[in-house]
């Protein structure tokens, strides 16, 4: 799975990891948590979490251990990260509510898709990026440092550093 190869999402080890993450999400999304308590929970599960990183609940992910958050990352309410492979978010990046980041992917041909096998492609979001509410980032995308992604954009291609991308599919504004 982590190598980006086809894998069976119903494999016993994978299902066990998902069940552990479901239990973690119940704790993370429980009412009454302080920012410090949530930060400690992120550090418990994620690959790494920089100081000052903050994800507002509710938050959902597949595994958590494939997610890296830089210093001061902020994610607003209702975000989802499907992290079957690495998802990296750089320092000081701000992510609006209900943003979806998908590293999980599926075969394009129906015959392979019928087998139920999946694969993943890493997502890299640079430093000082701003992603507007409701945006969707698809598998394999890299967003460069300082970029802006408009609210509701569907990012299907890499976005260069410093660029602004809007729309569905997202296009870089000139």
UniProtKB/TrEMBL annotation:
Residues 1-51 form the Maltose/galactoside acetyltransferase domain. GO terms for molecular function: acetyltransferase activity; O-acyltransferase activity. Keywords: Acyltransferase, Nodulation, Repeat, Transferase. SUPFAM superfamilies: Trimeric LpxA-like enzymes (SSF51161). It comes from the Bacteria. GO terms for cellular component: cytosol. PANTHER family: ACETYLTRANSFERASE C18B11.09C-RELATED, SIALIC ACID SYNTHASE-RELATED. Belongs to the transferase hexapeptide repeat family. Acetyltransferase implicated in the O-acetylation of Nod factors. This is Nodulation protein L. It comes from Caulobacter flavus.
């Amino acid at each position: 799975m982590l190598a980006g190869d086809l894998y069976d999402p119903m494999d016993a080890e994978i299902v066990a990891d998902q069940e552990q993450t479901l239990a973690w999400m119940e704790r993370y999304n429980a009412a009454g948590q302080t920012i410090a308590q949530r930060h400690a929970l992120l550090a418990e599960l994620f690959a790494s979490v920089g100081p000052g990183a903050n994800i507002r609940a509710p938050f959902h992910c597949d595994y958590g251990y494939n997610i890296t958050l830089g210093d001061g990352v902020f994610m607003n309410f209702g975000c989802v990260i499907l992290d079957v492979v690495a998802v990296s978010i750089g320092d000081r990046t701000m992510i609006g509510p209900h943003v979806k980041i998908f590293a999980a992917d599926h075969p394009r041909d129906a015959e392979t898709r019928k087998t139920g096998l999946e694969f993943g492609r890493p997502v890299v979001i640079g430093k000082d990026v701003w992603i507007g509410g409701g945006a969707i980032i698809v598998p394999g995308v890299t967003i460069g440092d300082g970029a802006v992604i408009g609210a509701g954009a569907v990012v299907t291609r890499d976005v260069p550093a410093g660029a602004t991308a809007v729309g569905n599919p997202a296009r870089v504004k000139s």
